[in-house]
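We modelled the chain as a single entity of 198 amino acids. Its sequence is:
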Amino acid sequence: MFVSPRKPLGQMNIKESCSFSGGKYHKSMRKQRIITTLVCATLFFAQSQFSAQAADRGPDPSPSASNSETSAPTSTKSAQNVDTELTKSRSLIASKKYKEALTELKKVNKSYPNNADVNNLLGFASRKLSQYKQAGTYYTKALKIKPDHLGALEYQGELFVLTKDITKAKANLAKLKKACGTSCAEYLDLKKSIGTKK
């Protein structure tokens, strides 16, 4: 279909503009669509990777899951199963329903008793309910299972700040610095919690 060149290109509909001048714009539009599709696919992939990491960490201040695995050898299927089981708990935590989250996490803990992520989340929910002794026990267990669990190091450090044990909080900050550097979220969050406290 040939469109009269008297009609400005901006006023043509897409079908008309693609077929203007015998298809002159058709090839450029196709290239543009391909480029747009590639850019969108790249962004989608990047977003899905970011979302997966964010899901492990959860919305601040919900707890992080350090790489969603324990230090004990586990199968990928097992790690996926525990992540699936933790979805509801993480949602409850994000909604600040800590008591319900703690109840749900205790159920998950029966199926996955030696999982660092489960114990980290149990510690987080307990700490938010001011159950500091119980929270400390869960964080200690998470770090025994996986000593470099970033979330457990951060949240145990925040527990130390709450219980005014700044020396131990700073020790956790040093461990985070060694594990992930000074620009990772866990390091920055714990550093902020410690602030200028001595």
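As a brief sanity check on the tokenised model: The chain has two domains: 9-51, 74-194. Residues 1-25, 50-62, 64-75 have pLDDT under 50 and may be disordered.
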